[in-house]
């Protein structure tokens, strides 16, 4: 068993499941979307992205691209959150929260693509 592949897969799947946990719920209800969970999603996605650097295969390039897309979406969501709460000081209005959740949904789609690519790569692996 390759421990590096296990950790790589672990962080990719954890990124997806944490993202789903943040995304799930009423799109405009702040009680369903926790800021700490968004933070955890960003951190785990960042770790998964860093782990993808160095893979020089075409599949590695696709995995890195999906992670970069997810990071852009998640960072944008966190910027909207910070702007709404701390700069504009309007709080998490239904409009602001809908934007944040929609951006995390885009990141979740990128994470789903990553996991699908990982499953394809794993199924093609010859012993």
Q: How would you summarize what this structure contains?
A:
With 127 residues, this protein is mainly alpha-helical. The protein has one domain (3-124). Helix content is 79%, strand content 0%.
Keywords:
127 residues, elongated, mainly alpha
Please describe what this structure looks like:
With 127 residues, this protein is mainly alpha-helical. It has one domain. The protein contains four helices and no strands. Helix 1 runs antiparallel to helix 2 (35-52), helix 2 (35-52) runs antiparallel to helix 3 and helix 3 (58-87) packs antiparallel against helix 4.
Mean pLDDT across every amino acid position? 93
Strand content: under 5%
The value of Rg in angstroms is 16 Å
Q: Work out the count of structural domains.
A: 1
Q: Any low-confidence stretches, pLDDT <50, length ≥5?
A: none
Q: Level of helix content? A: over 70%
Biggest sheet, open or closed, and with what strands and sense? Answer: none
What is the string of SSEs from the N terminus onward? HHHH
**Total number of strands:** 0
- Molecular shape: elongated
Structural class: mainly alpha
In whole angstroms, the N-to-C terminal distance is: 11 Å
């Amino acid at each position: 068993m390759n421990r590096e592949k296990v950790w790589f897969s672990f962080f990719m799947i954890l990124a997806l499941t944490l993202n789903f946990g943040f995304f799930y719920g009423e799109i405009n209800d702040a009680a369903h979307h926790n800021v700490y969970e968004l933070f955890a999603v960003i951190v785990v996605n960042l770790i998964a992205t860093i782990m993808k650097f160095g893979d020089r295969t075409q599949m590695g390039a696709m995995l890195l691209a999906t992670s970069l897309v997810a990071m852009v979406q998640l960072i944008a969501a966190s910027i909207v959150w910070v702007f709404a709460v701390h700069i504009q000081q309007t709080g998490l209005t239904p409009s602001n929260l809908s934007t944040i959740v929609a951006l995390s949904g885009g990141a979740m789609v990128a994470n789903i693509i990553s996991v699908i690519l990982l499953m394809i790569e794993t199924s093609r692996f010859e012993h």
